[in-house]
Amino acid sequence: MENETLKLTSVLADPTRFTIYQRIANMNRPVNVQEIADDFSIHPNVARLHLSKLEDVNLLKSVTEKTGKGGRPSRLYALSDEVVSLQFPPRDYQLLAKIAIETLISLGEEGIKALQQMGKRFGMEAAKQALHQEGIAALSELTTQKKLEILERLIVAQGLQPKLEVVDENTLNFQVNNCVFESPVKISNDQSICLMHQHLLMGIFETILGDIDLIPDNHTCGTKGTACQYIMVRLPIS
Fold first, then answer.
1. Per CATH, which fold does 85-231 belong to?
2. Domain residue spans in the chain?
């Protein structure tokens, strides 16, 4: 997990590359090099480099497409299907994960509490690694806007597709359209997994932003095609 997180945050640290990834994620269709070059007013070779780096860390996938006009086939880039599981063990270990989680859940309230604490700890560790990778030693020297930029890159690096909307200097709305712990292996208590996911996000938010309240709204754990929304994330005044 450490190496993958460092690779992803390093690739996403470039503002143009991160914006290109956001554009492709929001467009929800394949794009070619020339389209990105035109959209961002950059040379096609530069656009191709950014797209290749995003593909190298499996954030994007590419296919070649014949134009029907002869000449060199066009290469199209789209959001990778692997994004949601980049940070987790290969499928060979999913049964082991299921057994461990089910065992904790069977312990009742204490086991569920342990799941939440573990989720938060991993979130905090991922945030600290991201800050180290970007060479940031003192968060107090950063503006709230800079913190939000780091936060968004980190959340994307965890395999999530976030939307952050600033309401005012102390509040923002946060939405994710997928789950870090989504898996074909069915867990008996989806709500416990949902809470672990929520606490992982809490660990990330608290490490970057300080004391906050993350309040779930329209929390639709385990429902395909829906988003989990959080409201009133209280930011420290910078």
1. Muramoyl-pentapeptide Carboxypeptidase; domain 2 (3.30.1380)
2. 2-81, 85-231
Q: What's the length of the chain?
A: 238
* Domain 2-81: CATH class, spelled out: mainly alpha
DSSP three-state, residue 235: coil
pLDDT tens figures, 113-134: 888 888 889 889 988 888 887 7
Give the separation between CA 101 and CA 99, rounded to whole angstroms. 6
- DSSP states of 177-224: SS-TT--SSPPS-HHHHHHHHHHHHHHHHHHHH-S---EEES--TT-T
Reduced to 3 states (helix: H, G, I; strand: E, B; else coil), residue 77 is strand
**Would you put residue 126 in left (φ > 0), alpha (ψ -120 to 50) or beta?**
alpha
List, for the chain, all residue ranges whose pLDDT scores fall below the cut of 70: 1-6, 66-72, 81-98, 178, 180-190, 218-227, 231-232, 235-238
Tokens describing residue 102: 């089910």
Phi, psi of 69 (to 5 degrees): -110, 10
pLDDT for position 88: 42
Max distance between CA atoms of the chain, in angstroms, equals 65
Contact partners, residue 111, CB within 8 Å, separation at least 6:
103, 104, 105
| 196: amino acid identity, one letter | M
